[in-house]
Amino acid sequence: MNGTSDTTFEPDKVMTRAEFCQMFNNVIGRTDMGLVAQDGTTVTPELYSIVDIDGHWAEDAMLKATSAYDDNGLIDTETRIANIRNVLDKYDSQTWY
């Protein structure tokens, strides 16, 4: 995990959507996945109706986190829910002191 800058780590700061998406991808191992849907469609913010991330530092991470596809194709709903629970469980188990 990295800090908010090269010299700052703020564990008590409220986590942003972008930070959560980056952590989510790291936990489920989705860091190298391409941004292409199962049918070959390029994943874009418009495809998922995400209109406020164009050019954001975490645009790629946010698209990957919201994608229902991985290298093996469509991820079923139960697996997506389990992935989110896994991330939240790991986050909740952290002690910040």
Please describe the topology of this protein.
Blueprint: H1 17-28, H2 59-66, E1 69-70, E2 73-74, H3 77-92
Antiparallel strand pairs: 1-2
Helix pairs in contact: 1-2, 1-3
Overview of this protein structure:
Strands 1-2 form a two-stranded antiparallel ribbon. With 97 residues, the protein is mainly alpha-helical. The protein has one domain. A hairpin with a 2-residue loop joins strand 1 and strand 2. The mean pLDDT is 72. It is built from 3 helices and 2 strands; from the N terminus they run H-H-E-E-H. Helix 1 crosses helix 2.
Which stretches are poorly predicted, pLDDT < 50 over at least 5 residues? none
Main sheet overview = 2 strands, antiparallel
Total domain count: 1
Q: Trace the largest sheet across and list its strands.
A: 1-2
Q: Compute the separation of the termini in Å.
A: 16 Å
| Mean pLDDT level | 72
Specify the number of helices: 3
Strand content: under 5%
- SS elements, strand count: 2
The helix/strand class is mainly alpha
Gyration radius, in Å:
14 Å
Helix content: 25-40%
N-to-C series of helices and strands: HHEEH
Tell me the overall shape: globular
Please sum up the structure shown.
The protein has helices at 17-28, 59-66, 77-92; strands at 69-70, 73-74.
Attribute tags:
two-stranded antiparallel sheet; 97 residues; 3 helices; mainly alpha
